[in-house]
Amino acid sequence: MKNTFLVALLGFGASLAVRAQNPIIKDVFTADPAPLVYRDTLFLYTGHDTASVQETNYKMPDWRIYSTTDMVHWKDYGTRLSPKTFSWATGDAYAAQCVYHKGKFYWFVSTFHKKDDNSQGGAAIGVAVSDRPTGPFKDAIGKALIVNEMTKDKPHAWDDIDPTVFVDDDQQVYLYWGNLSCRWVKLKDNMTELAGPINVITPKNYIEGPWVYKRQKLYYLVYAGAGTKPEMIEYCTAPSAAGPWTYRGIIQENVPNSFTTHPGIIDYKGKSYFFYHNGSLPTGGSYRRSICVDDLRYNPDGTIQPIVQTVKGVAPAK
Fold first, then answer.
1. HEC letters along the chain
2. Residues of the signal sequence (predicted)?
3. Is pLDDT at 12 greater than 70 in this prediction?
4. How many CA atoms within 13 Å lie on the side-chain side of 108?
């Protein structure tokens, strides 16, 4: 009888653990999710919050990698990249995204630039490269790809953050980024050189954190917006990667206990997933955030249904 009760209790505990999937990473604070599917595995590239409960600013020393094959169990690869990888960098590990292109993995990161001959400081975007999705990664070009002096439409020094990279069907590569304005530029096939001028767009309510992808014939620009305060997730669609972008509305309301949120959208094993962060772990907050994932669903016309934020998370992928 006791053994039966114990088994039942353990089973109940396990079911509770499955039901309370979000946040998906509970042992460290993670932010700015960037999913990538390679072969049969979903890799998740994240920021890492280490600010104390009392601190009132970001402390983000490195980027981390996780993976899953079922959307429930996550393998932890630990820290795989930091601003120290880049000789020109100083400061924190802001949002980043890793993409696969022609046999290599390119991790586009945002951090800050030392004062030197190439820049007088401010936010900058770099590129690390590896032959494997989990590294080791090294600086691909030995200098920043984007520095503050290249973008003058906004006066503040932290505007060149949050890169997202999209490879179109014709293999043309696009880089999007920016705080308070969204910039985009074509990249050369080597992923480390600009292939044209930097363009500036101002989607409605745009703040930061763009994520660009294509589904069927529609292009999506999803971002953290100011539809209300604090940040929500809003989006636009377009007939091409260059626009023109049509505003479609708010898809994610404010998240618990964090004034920022950050989208990462991916299809995996026949389903669509929406990654984001909130501050819902014990002692969590706006500078101690945690990554969650919920289902993403589309209407027949391609518009995105409102995201339902859950503690349960998503069902196991088959």
1. CHHHHHHHHHHHHHHHHHHCCCCCCCCCEEEEEEEEEECCEEEEEEEEECCCCCCCCCCCCCEEEEEECCCCCCEEEEEEECHHHCCCEECCCCCEEEEEECCEEEEEEEEEECECCCCECCEEEEEEEECCCCCCCEECCCCCCECHHHCCCCCCCCCCCCCEEEECCCCCEEEEECCCCEEEEEECCCCCCECCCCEEECCCCEEEEEEEEEECCEEEEEEEECCCCCCEEEEEEECCCCCCCEEEEEEECCCCCCCCCCCEEEEECCEEEEEEEECCCCCCECCECEEEEEECCECCCCCECCCCCCCCCCCCCC
2. 1-20
3. no
4. 26
Q: What mean pLDDT comes out for the span 290-308? A: 98
Is the pLDDT at 229 greater than 60? The verdict is: yes
The residue count for the chain: 318
The alpha carbon of 305 is separated from its chain's Cα centroid by a whole number of angstroms, namely 20
CA-to-CA dists, residue 195 to 129, 173, 185, angstroms: 19, 9, 7
Split at pLDDT 50, 70, 90, the class of 54 is very high
pLDDT above 70 (res 102): yes
Average pLDDT (132-155) is: 97
| pLDDT mean across residues, the chain | 94
pLDDT at residue 17, as a whole number = 40
Residue 109 pLDDT class (50, 70, 90 cuts): very high
The yes-or-no verdict on residue 21 having pLDDT over 70 is yes
Cα 54 from chain centre: 26
Tokens for 66, please give them: 């996780």
Residue of 118, 197, 196, 109 whose CA lies nearest to 161: 109
